[in-house]
Amino acid sequence: MPDESHPAQLKDWFDEKRYQSLASELAALSKPFRKEVFLQSVLDGLEERSLMQRLHQCAVAVDTALPGSFRQKVEVLHNLAPKIEHGFVAIFLSDFVASFGLHDFDFSLEALRDFTKHGSAEFAVRPFIIADQKRALKAMRRWAEDECEHVRRLASEGSRPRLPWGMRLPSLVADPSPAAPILEALKGDEALYVRKSVANHLNDVTKDHPDWVVERLEGWNLRDERHSWIAKHACRTLIKRGHPRALQLFGFAEGADVDATLTASPTSLSLGQRLGISATVTSTSRKPQRLVIDYVIHYVKASGGNAAKVFKWTETELKGGEKLELSKTQVIQDFTTRKHYPGNHKVELQINGQRVASTAFDLS
Question: Are 219 and 264 contained in the same domain?
Fold first, then answer.
């Protein structure tokens, strides 16, 4: 089995050895458990399944191999949960509840509240929100007061309208206000883990309702470090887009009075090489200016067009006439989320949301 922190592939978190271990634990907890039925269910077709498919198949196999009612099966899984020493693997416990417990709404929500302490229930709670949003969010508002930070985080993370890897919540995409009391309750949370979730939730909302988010944040006490940290991270996408009210919220003007140059080196490189970017920014104002400085790479797409990606560079304050020199490097390499194609790549310098200088490099 690969190292749990760095498997050859993420789906290897659920491999034959893992399933054998889970089967043995379940057999020890429940005499009627049919170990061979469980293993046949998870191992047949294993190689073809993705990570999330393997996780879900584990829940399906438990339902098939463990006799009893839904509540009786959950009780066995409650006893299993502390024995699973892998946070992502433990998510299958909540997936079981989401897959087979919608008919027992309140009991299932309580089970998710408990299981999230072992492996996040952020994906599993979403079918309950879709089935009965008012009822689910009422419970999640209570979770926002829970003594356990994992439960408090679930209140925010589970109600994110556009959670990565999770099903979208169309009603909250259209109107984020029903989840607002949860975010208000958590904005001063002592756990950074929770505050990050609140920031990501609000950043989700900025994609559909930017002014709604900024208006709420304008009412927060941004002198409070916890509030200001959330607000800044919640507005990260808006600041990159140069949203005027978001810039103003943090003391940045729309645009800047500057002269700027930008250079790229080398101007021709191959995949895997390091690109150097240098900028000079000179204030043309007599007054000090707060600046948020980003750079933009227009990546060539397979179709021959391009797609712009904004990268954060720095924030600073320039006095009147002051000059700033910046430089950084970036390896041009493929990722699972980005594939590079040959061609001319434009690079731009962006200050307070406006493009003020440009250069380019050729990728072969």
Answer: no
Say if strands 354-363 and 343-351 run parallel, antiparallel, or are unpaired. Answer: antiparallel
Q: Does 239 lie in the same domain as 111?
A: yes
- Which CATH number does the domain housing residue 81 bear? 1.25.40.290
Tell whether 125 and 23 lie within a shared domain.
yes
The answer to whether residues 262 and 212 belong to one domain is no
Q: What is the per-residue DSSP string for 100-133?
A: H-TTSHHHHHHHHHHHTTTS--TTTTHHHHHH-H
Choose one of 228, 249, 270: the last residue of a domain.
249
pLDDT value for 1: 31
**Which amino acid type is present at position 323?**
K
Tell me if residue 326 falls in helix, strand or coil: strand
The reported pTM is 0.86
Q: pLDDT tens-digit profile of 295-309?
A: 999 999 999 999 999
CA distances in angstroms from 253 to 66, 205, 243, listed in the order given = 62, 23, 10
Eight-state DSSP code of residue 259? E
